[in-house]
Each structure stands twice: as C-alpha cells, then as structure tokens.
Design goal:
- The chain is mainly α and about 575 residues long.
- It has three domains: about 35 residues, no CATH class; about 350 residues, no CATH class; about 35 residues, no CATH class.
- It is built from 21 helices and four strands.
- The strands form two sheets. The chain has a two-stranded antiparallel sheet with strand order 1-4.
- Strand 2 and strand 3 form a beta hairpin.
- Helix 4 packs parallel to helix 6, helix 9 runs antiparallel to helix 19 and helix 12 crosses helix 21.
- The protein is globular.
- It is a multi-pass membrane protein.
- Pfam families: Xan_ur_permease.
- Belongs to the nucleobase:cation symporter-2 (NCS2) (TC 2.A.40) family. Azg-like subfamily.
- Keywords: Membrane, Transmembrane, Transmembrane helix, Transport.
C-alpha cells in the first residue's frame, strides 16, 4: 500500500500539477518540503469536516434577519407567529444553505488554485451575527434594511480590492492597538455565546427582548417600546473541538427529526409540514430564489447606520482575514522571515475581496478565511490542493441542502457557545499590567455583549484608548516627564509606521523600472519548520487567531516589519 501511494505522489509531483502547486519532488525552486498529493487530499477533507458546521449555522443566523421576506402584521412588527412570513423564512433559509455552500466552494477552490494556500473560506462567524442582529435586526427591525446591508457588503468587497492592491490592508491591521484586537476576539466570543443561549438562534436558556436579550439603551423611560429603546432614541437620555462540533450538531439533529417527538423540528403545522416535505427529498438542488442579487442601490436616503455598518464590516474583515491568513501561513511554514510575507499573499487578499462581493450577490454576510483551515494544515496540508479539496466538498454539499436545512437552531446554538468559550481564551493575552492598555480592552469586550453590538464595542474601545493615552501624553509633556502613570514600562509598543513603507512590493518594483514588476525575482526558499506541528493550535475562531497573531508580532518587537 505504501508503495502504491508513493507511486501516485511521485507521479503527480512530476507532472504539471506538481510544479504548479510546488509539491515536493516537482523540481520547482520553491517547492514546499513535505507536500504530497494524497496528503493534500486528506488535509482538504479534514478542513471541510472541521468547518462544515458553517453551512447550517450561518443559514440559521441569517434567517433571523428576515431576508427579503416582508412583514405585513400591524400588531407584531416581527411577524413571529405570522404563517405566510414563517413559510417565507423557510424558503430563504434554504437559499442561505445553498448560498453558503456555494460561496465556500467557490472561494476555497479559488484560494487554492490562484494563491496556492491551504486555507478555506466561508461566511465568517461574528460578522454574520453583526449583520443579522445589529445592522438588519431580528426580522428586519434594525436600522438598515436587508437589501441595503447587502449593498454595503458589495461595496466593501471592492474597497478591499483597492486596499489589497495598494498594500493598505496589512497597515490598517497593524494600526489598531494589540489589546483592543485581543479584546475584540473575547467580546465577539461573549456576543456569540449570548446568541447561542437565546431562543431565536440558540437553545433558549435566556430571554429578554423578543429577539435580542440585551441591547444598547439610554433612552427616556417614556420612550421604551416593549422594554426596548427604538433605534432613533438610543443614548438620548441625560441619565445616561476538533470534530466535536459536527458530532454534536448531528446528534441533536437526528434526535429532532422524528415527527412524533416532543422536540421535533417538524411539528404537524403548515410550517412543519413544509419543512418536512423538503427534508424528505434528502438530495436535491435548491436554487437561490429570494436572496439572489437582492441589493438596494438607493443609498441616498440611507441613515448614518449604513455608513457605520460599512466601516465596521471593513474593520472587522481587515483584522479577521489578515490575521487568519498570516497565522495559517506561518503554521504551514510558508512565511518568509525576512519579509514577513507569504507567497501569493496579494492574490489571497484579492480572492477574499472578490468573494465578499460575490457572496453579497448570493444574499450573504461577508466571507473570510477560516481558522479551521488549521485542521487540514495539521494533517500535512501545505499547498492549494488542500483548499481546492475542501472547496469540492462544499460544492458536493450543495446537493444535500434538505439535510442541512433540517438542522434545528437548538442543534447549532451549542456550537455558538463552544466557539464563544474558545474565543475567550484570548483574554489571558491582554496586557493587564498597564491600565492604558487594559481599560480600553475591558471596555471593548464588555460593551460588545452588553449592547449586543460588535460595532459599539469597537468604537468604545478605540475611543477610550485614544482619550486615555492622549491625556497621559499631555500630562507627561506638560509636567516635563514628572507625572507618569504607574507601570507604564509595561505599556505595549504601538506605531503607525511599517519598515520600508506601506506600499506593496509590486508597486516598489514598478517604480524602480522593472518591466515584469508582477514577478519577484528573488529566489529565496520558502521556510518550513524543522519539525512540523503535531497538532492544531488551540484556536476555534478567526478573530481569536487574528488577535493572538497580532499580539505576538507586537510583543516580539516586530510591529514595524514590512508586510508587502
């Protein structure tokens, strides 16, 4: 058997496929040590099974936005009990199932084919919750309509294209203080935990407002509507584990499928009958009917929340995808220690950027790189063949939409709690020794879950960091250095500068007169670890990996190194 697999690996390595993906033995100057064809296939399967939960979880969360469904009930603006509205929700949930699998298939395959990186992509956790519960609101009760939010995401994708070409994504990711980035991961983890505990998208362990158990308030008591501050009145009051996730989802889902059970997902109701009839098809192709190309381009009358949503999507995506790509590239041994860059980084960013815009055409929240790609890398994945294999698996899953659409929210709610718990580990890496770093970090991680908004948490943390550290700087300047806060020697280094500038290498080469500026003629070898990691780093979510990686860079004094 070993001889047979060696023959296959050697045959592929010696072909054009081996040279294209730089397999070991291909003869390429930058072949990746230890990369084998069959190992890459196995690694791709590991990546898919580690992140397959996103198909049902993402659909469940996005369905809470109401999508394109229209609520006509004048007594209940959420139409929670409206039959026609709930039947419509069933249709768009199937749309989201198909769309999620399709965009994950497309972007993962393209990441492998064009960037040659073993990193898979899909709609990001955290961003989908922000999209649903903060921007659009439960069943469309938020400040921005579903269609207009998709427009913001479409625009964001093309803004990313420009930022990627100019090399600004890396710089923007470095500007944010490390403690704020670490706290962002923790805050998002707590945020997801609350969602997993609610009724609408979780196990129903806590409740409060009809859809959001916690919200930003601050309005006059006379302005409360059903115990919640309307959007226009907020803040106006002067008083102011590996494989375990998939196994758990499958177990709970199977228990919930029998119709005569007290916990059935298919009760004998019109909605239950409709869901059960679709479930019985088992394997079929469900075309995207309601959420395809649903953008609203009439942004002239959009509120300031539209701009806030666009900026927040940009910021979180920059940190999320940038950090994940570099974390996984380093784990795969593809980082060049001199440039702190990896092969195909510019193409990888462009795949992510175009994937965001294409995903919005499918009616989805932003796409990003997944830290679960580390499951495949830990299996030996080093090239784009790993991501392409995962992409093919996601494509196959499109035709099993009835199964994924029949996974109840109480099966995926525990997933959110697990992910949230894992993300909170980043709290230990926050610089708690100096209050100029620790207090803004605490504000960030506290405001996110307690206002049910990622955006408010980020804004509160960044503003408090600027105010506190500006005051400290002014006091030191005025006192001639005599007034210095305690433990300032433990302050984390911060700078907006990057060694060599922020322009990417291809622009530098073009400016120097190199005609084929898109080619890097420096034939430095790709560094690989002498002893590959034996297990996957204990990360569960993109944001945690991002903030952990950024903190490590800063702590080792490399914050100014070039990311071209």
């Amino acid at each position: 058997m070993a001889g047979f697999t060696k023959k296959i690996n050697d045959a592929v390595a010696g072909s054009i496929v081996g040279r294209r993906f730089r397999l070991e033995g291909s003869g390429h100057a930058k072949s990746r040590e230890g990369s084998r064809f069959l190992t890459e296939i196995r690694a791709g399967l590991a990546t898919f099974f580690a992140m397959a939960y996103i198909i049902s979880v993402n659909a469940t969360i996005l369905t809470d936005s109401g999508g394109t469904c229209v609520c006509t009930d004048t007594t209940d603006i959420t139409c929670t009990t409206d039959l026609d509205y709930n039947l419509c929700l069933g249709v768009i949930r199937r749309d989201f199932i198909t769309g999620t699998a399709a965009i994950a298939a497309l972007t993962s395959f393209c990441m492998g084919l064009f960037a040659n990186m073993p990193i898979a992509l899909a709609p990001g956790m955290g961003l989908n919750a922000y999209f649903t519960y903060t921007v659009v609101g439960f069943h469309g009760t938020g400040p921005v309509t579903y269609r207009l939010a998709l427009t913001a995401i479409f625009i964001e994708g093309f803004v990313f294209v420009g930022l990627s070409l100019l090399g600004l994504r890396q710089w923007l990711a470095r500007v944010i203080p490390a403690s704020i980035k670490l706290a962002s991961g923790v805050g998002i983890g707590l945020y997801l935990t609350i969602i997993g505990l609610t009724y609408s998208a979780g196990i129903g362990a806590i409740t409060g407002a009809p859809s959001t158990p916690l919200e930003l308030a601050g309005c006059l008591q006379s302005e409360l509507v059903d115990g919640v501050c309307p959007g226009s009145t907020k803040m106006r009051s002067p008083m102011i584990v590996k494989g375990a996730i998939i196994a758990g989802i499958l177990l709970v889902s199977i228990i919930s499928w029998p119709r005569n059970s007290s916990v059935t997902y298919f009760p004998h109701t019109p909605v239950g009958d409709d869901n059960f009839n679709f479930f019985k098809k088992v394997a079929t192709f469900h075309s995207i009917k309601e959420t395809l190309n649903a953008q609203d381009w009439n942004v002239a009358g959009a509120s300031g929340q539209f701009g806030l949503a666009l900026i927040t999507f940009l910021y979180v995506d920059i940190l999320d995808c940038t950090g994940t790509l570099y974390s996984m590239a380093r784990f795969a041994g593809a980082i060049d220690e001199e440039t702190q860059d990896f092969e195909g980084s510019a193409v990888a960013y462009l795949v992510d950027a175009f994937g965001i815009s294409i995903g919005s055409l499918f009616g989805l929240s932003p796409v990003t790189a997944f830290i679960e790609s580390g499951a495949g890398i830990s299996e030996g994945g080093k090239t784009g063949l790993t991501a392409m294999t995962a992409g093919i698996c996601f494509f196959i899953s499109i035709f099993f939409a009835p199964i994924f659409a029949s996974i109840p929210p109480w099966a995926t709610g525990c997933t959110l709690i697990i992910v949230g718990a894992m993300m909170c580990k980043a709290a230990k890496d926050i610089n708690w020794r100096y209050w100029g770093d620790s207090f803004p970090a605490f504000v960030t991680l506290a405001v996110m879950p307690f206002t049910y908004s990622i955006a408010y948490g980020l804004i509160a943390g960044i503003v408090s960091y600027i105010i506190i550290n500006t005051i400290i700087w002014l006091l030191e300047a005025v006192s001639g250095g005599r007034i210095v806060p305690a433990d300032k020697e433990f302050r984390e280094p911060w700078t907006y500068k990057i060694k060599g500038g922020i322009l990417p290498a291809w622009i530098v080469r073009a400016a120097s007169g190199q005609k084929d500026f898109w080619h890097d003629h420096s034939e430095y070898p790709v560094t690989t670890p002498s002893s590959p990691p034996s297990s996957l780093p204990d990360y569960t979510h993109n944001s945690e990996a991002m903030v952990g990686n950024e903190a490590k860079v800063l702590e080792t004094g490399k914050a100014n190194e070039k990311l071209s």
